[in-house]
Amino acid sequence: MNHIAPGARAGIYHYDEIDRRFVGERVEQFRRQVERRLSGELTEEEFKPIRLMNGLYLQLHAYMLRIAVPYGVMSAVQLRKLAEIGRTYDKGYGHFTTRQNLQYNWIKLEDTPAILNALADVDMHALQTSGNCVRNVTTDQFVGAAKDEVVDGRVYAEILRQWTSLHPEFTYLPRKFKIAISGAASDRAAVRVHDVGLLARRNEAGEAGFTFYVGGGLGRSPFIGKLVREWVAEEDFVAYLEAILRVYNQYGRRDNIYKARIKILVHELGLEKFKAEVEEEFARLRGPKYRLDPAIVAEIRTHFAPPPFEDLPETSSALERAKAENPAFANWVAVNVAEHKAPGYAIATISLKPPGGIPGDASCDQMDVIADLAEQYSFGELRVSHVQNIVLAHVKQDELYALWQKLDAVNLGTANAGLIGDIIACPGLDYCALANARAIPLAQAISARFADPLRQRTIGELGIKISGCINACGHHHVAAIGILGVDKKGTEFYQITVGGDPTLTTAIGDILGPAVTEHEAVDAIEAIVEVYLANRTGESERFLDTLARVGHGPFKERIYAAD
Amino acid sequence: MPSPDGTLHAITANRLRDGVVVFLGAAGAWVESFADAALLTEAEATTALAAAKAQAERDQFGVDLYAFEVESENGAALPVKMRERIRTLGPSVRLDLGKQAAA
Amino acid sequence: MPLIENGRIGEDAWSFIPDGEPVPNDRPVIISFERWQAERASFDGRNAKLGVRLKGGTLAGAIAPDLDRFALVAVEFPKFRDGRGFSTARELRERYGYAGEIRAVGHVIPDQYQFLVRTGFTSVEAPEGTNPESWANALTEITIAFQPSIDDTQPLSLLRRKLGVAG
User: Fold this and answer.
1) Helix axis angle, A271-285 relative to A262-269, nearest 10°?
2) Within this chain, do residues A168 and A116 fall inside the same structural domain, yes or no?
3) A414 lies in a domain?
4) Among A120, A192, C22, C96, which lies 20 to 30 A Cα-Cα from A552?
């Protein structure tokens, strides 16, 4: 291994020799597993879960490799390595996903050990990005920077990354297991649609603890996570999760893949019975063996020390001047820039959703530019958001204008974060072996239709999310406007839902009416927008608020009236 | 070789070592281009698929083998479903990639 | 069938007696949990060692009250992907304090061997023709773990520990 320090100040966990040895051993183990598969010692049935646990899927055109970006945070050095891998082993681009990871689409099985080795050079891996194990833990993309943050979710996400790595008991679960943590007042991590959703909080004494929601999830049967425990103290964090996973591993259904997620177990057992089972395990597990020692937490927290912020005034006159001179920049600031907890700093979202573009795709050249900009403007660190954008979390307000100009030069300056053009789309039938319909072309058509930045601003906060099949990787259930691709005798159709919400006021969207063709879908979205604009009481009434007030009626009428 | 009932089938897989999409060609050889794929009747496809599966597992050659329907459009064979159309060409959103790029 | 113990293929002193066949009294045998439930009185006074085989869906709690009667518990994996057995073994050890042999039977692959050992298994029934090298490698290829488990591990720092270090 040719180890390259991945960036001293970035808010990532810094490996030491032991971590490096572990990842290195895992790469060698996979190298032997690939050899055993190619020699026939392992059957495809036996090899499949093994390759999945190393992030390797077989898709429509080739193997797809999903790289773990733990809690979505990485350093510029790491991103540059991802760009290099994309050029060497793939076709010069990558796809950022709703799981805050990166996927390559054109991978060869026989190259995979070498790719994993290249990742290990910068302390990265593809472990547990797939398979029926605990997946990469996700968190708020503004973690460590947001003004409304109470607890730094990275610390606990990293503890879970370690604790779940090759967990001997929980690596062959009934089905995949996804955990999300939010430590801020606003939930940007969609915690209640995860198998376990955690709200990290503080009690009156200032101690950290967690509210546990269990059994949320999208897919074929969407469920909103149920409150299982209001408060789990930090020292019980691991023990309580161990208890949940043990109950799930023993009682989760294994007879039907569509009923194997923990959401079905919670639903079938009933919340009270499920809670009782977990509490019983927890009562026994609670003790020295599983106690999360505050020293562990303190040690891991040192990895996430804030970068050396300068003492700056709360506001920047340079920023105000630039905004006044350049309306396009002012628009980008209004839409893509969020408040930072350190005075004089800001959080900038780099949209990977140019009008007509492929949501979440970035070329290796763009990755290199983003890496350079992260180094220049954000302490060498960046984040991947679950809405498939990139975030530079610590930018001086004084430097936002320079940053935007450089972004704009490489088609990365789109001002649409959270607006109608900021569409989530899964890879769909263009790449995915499970898909029933394409998702990307529809996203492209919609974002092109609403390309005008001023029109997007007028429409305001409105998320569109598209999935190419019922597995719902595009999170369509929790979109203000959700679109699900379905296959009807080999032809693609799209079912529209409205009223979904991924935040703490979680809601699953309702189907508006019969599925429509791709072309009709774009017009239908436009019609929904027009009905909203015509009905809203004012600019401050969001789409979801208008929908809640007027109901489906006017929307349905407009879309399906002609039928 | 068009079949009497007009429904044709072809057989596809991904090559184990690199994942590349392949089709069963004439005389049981695997080919990379759909243009070279054998077009079979349903009965022929069933037999050929079973034989190809057994062979592929023995040789560690291909995985995820299956048969799909093909129709004839202006004399040219075309997969019936979008899924296989995309498989034979490449992503519809990146015409510079996949088999369509090489053509 | 080859028996894997401590990373090597070893001699199997035990034999499984299918339901309905007579149970020899002079050597160690394994019977099904169902047979144990139906005929438990017939094993009163037995001197030779007795083992019990649990089906994949039978959890540790079912056999817990009778554990002192068994020198071996065999836990069945119907498919290697069905990981309930890992919890069963762990519960036998941690919750019920079982100290006898725990054997993995059914479909397991060498790639799971370290997990089996770490959750409390002592032996594995491997399929005929298995590659002994893969089982031996499985115990040494990963030397770091990130969570406490049944086997003796040496804590390195905080969450992490080194595997394969006795006591």
Assistant:
1) 110
2) no
3) no
4) A192
CA-based nearest residue in chain C for residue A20? C144
Roughly what angle, to the nearest 10 degrees, separates helices A543-550 and A518-535?
80
Q: Which residue of A430, A431, A517 to mutate against B (max B Cβ within 10 Å)?
A: A430
- Is the residue at C119 inside a domain? yes
**Chain B partners of A91 at a C-beta cutoff of 8 Å?**
97
CATH number at residue A446: 3.30.413.10
Q: How many domains does chain A have?
A: 4
pLDDT at B5: 53
Mean pLDDT within A228-252: 97
Q: Is A22 on the interface with C (CB under 8 A)?
A: yes
Q: Are A346 and A338 in contact (CB under 8 A)?
A: yes
Tell whether A40 and A97 lie within a shared domain. Answer: yes
Residue of A nearest to C56 (CA): A250
Inside any domain, residue C107: yes
Range from A102-111, A282-291, B34-43 carrying the lowest mean pLDDT:
A282-291
3-state secondary structure of C97: coil
What is the domain-level CATH number for residue C47?
Answer: 3.20.20.70
Sheet of B30-31, strands arranged across? B30-31, B21-24, B8-15, B62-73, B76-79
Residue of A61, A437, A441 with shortest CB distance to B87: A61
A280 touches chain C (CB under 8 A): no
Of C107, C97, C46, nearest to C75 by C-alpha is C107
> Which residue in the block uniquely carries the two structure tokens 């991904």?
B14
Residues on chain A touching B17 (C-beta within 8 angstroms): 38, 108-110
Q: Cα A294–A300–A305 angle (5° rounding)?
A: 115
Closest CA to A195 of A179, A173, A174, A218: A179
- Strands of C123-125's sheet in order across: C8-10, C3-5, C123-125, C101-106, C72-77, C50-54, C29-32, C15-16
Band of residue C1 on the pLDDT scale cut at 50, 70, 90: confident
Cβ atoms within 10 Å, residue A337:
20
CA angle C132, A174, A39 (to 5 degrees): 30
Give A506-560 as a 3 state SS string. CECCEECCCCECHHHHHHHHHHHHHHHHHHCCCCCCCHHHHHHHHCCHHHHHHHH
In a shared domain, residues A437 and A546: yes
Same domain, A326 and A294: no
How far is Cα C105 from Cα C74, in angstroms, rounded to an integer?
Answer: 6
Interface touch C115/A168, C-beta < 8 Å? yes
Query: Which has the closest alpha carbon to A94: A473, A320, A360, A296?
Result: A360
Residue B82 Cα, gap to closest chain A Cα (Å): 6
Nearest to A108 among B19, B58, B90 (CB): B19
The mean pLDDT value of chain A amounts to 95
Of C91, C109, C147, the CB nearest to A46: C109
Is A36's Cβ below 8 Å from some Cβ in C?
A: yes
Burial of A93 (0-12, 13-18, 19+ CB in 10 A): buried
